[in-house]
Amino acid sequence: MESSVNKRVKEIIESKKVSDNKFAHTIGIGQKVLSSMFIRSTEPSVKTISAILDAFPDISAEWLLRGVGAMNKTDAIISEEEKSTSYKELEQKICTRI
């Protein structure tokens, strides 16, 4: 069975619109390592995960490792700002009713 981390690595590859080979080259691993992750469901090493996060600083480590939050850090920031705005609007509505 394929690990969730491997699924998220595939999502990164798809979102960056690069081939598996280009992705492997970009993060500094061999194509065989990446293929093993996908075909044999081999868990990526800490070195591989670190290389992904170094090569793509916009990717959220928490999302990659745990599947929590948004893939891109900027999406997570925007989401938090939207929540903050919604809370402020709600607070204003409550205050005007009191």
Rg to the nearest angstrom?
Answer: 18 Å
**Low-confidence segments, ≥5 residues, pLDDT <50?**
none
Biggest sheet statistics: none
Total DSSP E strands = 0
Can you give me a brief rundown of this structure?
With 98 residues, this protein is an all-alpha fold.
Kindly describe this structure.
The chain is mainly alpha-helical and 98 residues long. It has a domain at 4-71: 434 Repressor (Amino-terminal Domain), CATH 1.10.260. Helix content is 72%, strand content 0%. It has 6 helices and no strands. The longest helix has 25 residues, at 73-97. The termini are far apart. The model has no long low-confidence stretch (mean pLDDT 84).
Describe the protein's topology:
Blueprint: H1 4-16, H2 20-27, H3 31-39, H4 46-55, H5 61-66, H6 73-97
Structure keywords:
98 residues; mainly alpha; 434 Repressor (Amino-terminal Domain); 6 helices; 72% helix; elongated
